[in-house]
């Protein structure tokens, strides 16, 4: 949205002469920003996304729902006679108390609440992962527009940045695609995941400092570890997709390649040197502008606030250094430089 001012006309009226392939046939069509973005969106929507993280979330959800029962089951006195355990004893282990109708009903409700709430949380994380994947696909197809070979491979329009109007269309298309899909809601979900992972990491560090030999003797510590591992897996995936998306949108090599093509064209057509020099100057300014707008991938909310970021960093690093010092037997000081 920082680049819409570069286009004097609306996205509907400004058009660029682009090449588009229909099988082995190639034709030149005048297309607007909305028409090009519509083709890119249709290609992204036709992409079959994997269900690996959704299945992972379902497995972790079932595991967390059955965790109290499994913990009590594997800590029973008659572990050797586990195969011959009776139904009454199994209900006693499931409820954590002598089996009766009220206790069984209450334990069943508790189990269903854990299952549903955990599934809803992991479902939101899967939605965030799918949205980040769509953003990455938008950025990937956008970066292929100026390459004829890749544009033909992915069946998207192709045009070169050899005119000022083409550069304006390219920048407007970049801005338009970056704002597609849910933005703030998904970023808030990712920020909540990040905050929850930091909170659980701090609690685990405090529990280890309290007694690392008895850390795994409590069921809630096992649950904290499972939650932390699952959240870190999703955060690594989201951070990877976010950083790759930023790299695709901030790929300066595309503009540098177009500048080289312009220099080569100046040698072949000296009579158009003045016009091509103007386009080259606009490309240079566009390169500087993208460098100014280029920022590393950040989780929304927390890292945008320097005070909260520094406080969180101090607390987490202090807890981690305390855990390492307690496990290794000697003190480790972590240098923390505020931003």
Automatic annotation (TrEMBL):
InterPro entries xrefs: PHTF1/2
Transmembrane region(s): 51-70, 90-109, 188-209, 221-239
UniProt entry tagged with the keyword DNA repair: no
Keyword Translocase assigned: no
GO CC, alphabetical: endoplasmic reticulum
UniProt keyword list: Membrane, Transmembrane, Transmembrane helix
Descriptive protein name: PHTF1/2 N-terminal domain-containing protein
Organism listed in the record: Bambusicola thoracicus (Chinese bamboo-partridge)
